[in-house]
Amino acid sequence: MQVLKPFKYIGLNGLGQRVSGTLRAVTQAEALQQLHIQGFVEVQWVFRKTFNWKALSKRFSFRVALKERIDLVQRLGVLLQSGLPLLEALRLLQRQTTPKRLRYLLEALQTQVRAGQAFSEGLMRVEPFFGSLGIAMIQAAEARGALAEALLALAQLWRKQLSQVRTLQSLLVYPCVVLSLGLAVLSFLSLWVLPRFEAVFASSLGNVPLPTLTRWVLAFPKNAPLLGLLSAALLLFIVWLLRFSPKHWAVAPRLGRCLPGLRAALEDRMLARLGSSLGALLGAGVPILKGISLTAQQLPAYPYRPALLQVSTQIKNGNRLSLGLKQTRCFPEALIHISEVGEATGRLPEMLQLLGQDAAESFDSKVTRAVQLLEPALLLLLALLVLILALALVLPMSRLLEGA
Questions:
Q1: pLDDT of residue 45
Q2: Most CB atoms within 10 A, among 22, 37, 53, 176?
Q3: In this structure, are residues 162 and 67 in contact, taking their beta carbons and an 8 Å threshold?
Q4: CA 134, CA 157: separation in Å to the nearest integer?
Q5: How far apart are the first and last CA of the chain?
């Protein structure tokens, strides 16, 4: 089906009057032919200003706050669901939006829609804003006339991700503050207070050797720069191992076998991502192969991402999703069972989203319990370090009293 594009013109009609208007046609030549048939003898085309999409994409090359994306997509979905045309909804959002970069984006999208192009085509040029998963949902929903529902589903998906991030942040604030203050106090005692006591002990004890614990504690300030460099090198190595070398993620299953609680939490996190993402994509009308490919990008590099790509290969060969998940021997039984039920009842997207919601709640509860156990553990650790410092100072004093 050919798309009619609007062409704005200013011309002279057969009576010599200057007339302006907009004509819809497939091409500019066809529009000019229609105007000549209507008796226009002189026609000038009025072109709307064009946007530098490359410059616009650079504006969104940084991460836009997830809260801003949720608000924008939610309001646009509500406006479209109320029956407002897309162009009018974008214009209304532009007037109500405060950040300048978002107003510029909405203005550019209006130009795209006026030119007869699809809404998703404009979003592809600023992919860092919506992401490949969001664009795929919008593109599939736009093709079947359910754009408002897809926008609301995308806002709900992002809201769940934001809720998990905020939950983790709120739980980790107190342990991080306690640990930072404790380390700051211990560093002050080790680097400034202990060296002064070392001079006192040397002048008071003379040739009497210091206790072993005191010697270790007094040697810490001298080796602090070396220990700092080793700690920084170890931290950089861990970051490189997890971020830039996915093949080394093979240690994760071994770590999970040693720490069953950590393995269960990682599985819940994976199920939450997989269920919510794949369920939202399938619910928006995205083909299952494309949905699996986009969902694999949301999962850890090893072992779930290659396993999910193997599932895609199984589906290409004619197998069902549940059978492909079972043959990989990587995914939990809950996901396989839910997939079987969803395929049998024809409600696979809804079942996957329910699984993702349940897994997200389970992950939050596990993290909450872990943090609750972490807080007293940090206090005990700080108390142990203070006890070591106190003993390191008291033991030489006891020898002084014995010698007296």
A1: 63
A2: 53
A3: yes
A4: 10
A5: 104
Query: What is the DSSP annotation of 83-130?
Result: T--HHHHHHHHHHH--SHHHHHHHHHHHHHHHTT--HHHHHHTTHHHH
CA atoms within 13 A on the CB side of 136: 21
Listed as own residue / partner, the contacts of 227-230 with beta carbons closer than 8 Å and 24 or more positions apart are: none
Domain ranges in the chain are 5-46, 57-159, 163-404
Q: Among residues of the chain, what percentage have pLDDT more than 70?
A: 78
Whether 57-159 shares its CATH topology with 163-404 is answered: yes
Tokens of 171: 């739980």
Under 8 Å between Cβ of 262 and 256: yes
CATH superfamily of 163-404: Type II secretion system (T2SS), domain F (1.20.81.30)
Distances in whole angstroms, Cα of residue 26 to Cα of each of 6, 309, 348:
9, 41, 40
- Kindly list the distances between the CA atom of residue 200 and the CA atoms of 122, 194, 205, 224, in Å, as whole numbers in the listed order: 74, 10, 8, 21
> What dotted CATH number matches 57-159?
1.20.81.30
**Higher confidence at residue 64 or residue 103?**
103
Alpha helices for 211-329 (secondary structure H): 212-243, 251-258, 260-283, 288-296, 304-316, 321-328
Tokens of 180: 């930072």
Residue range 249-264: average pLDDT?
A: 53
Q: Report the interhelical angle of 348-403 vs 333-345 (nearest 10°).
A: 160
- Cα–Cα distance for residue pair 204/389, rounded to 1 Å: 19
Identity of residue 178: V
| Contact call for residues 208 and 404 (beta carbons, < 8 A) | no
Query: Residue holding tokens 């550019």?
Result: 108
- Name the strand (E) or helix (H) holding 71: helix 66-81
Q: Is pLDDT of 179 > 80?
A: no
More confident residue, 29 or 59: 29
pLDDT at 49 over 50: no
- The first and second tokens of residue 111, run together, are 């130009």
Q: What is the dihedral of CA 190, 193, 194, 195, to 10 degrees?
A: 110
One-character DSSP codes across 144-155:
TT-HHHHHHHHH
| Residue 202 CB neighbour total at 10 angstroms | 11
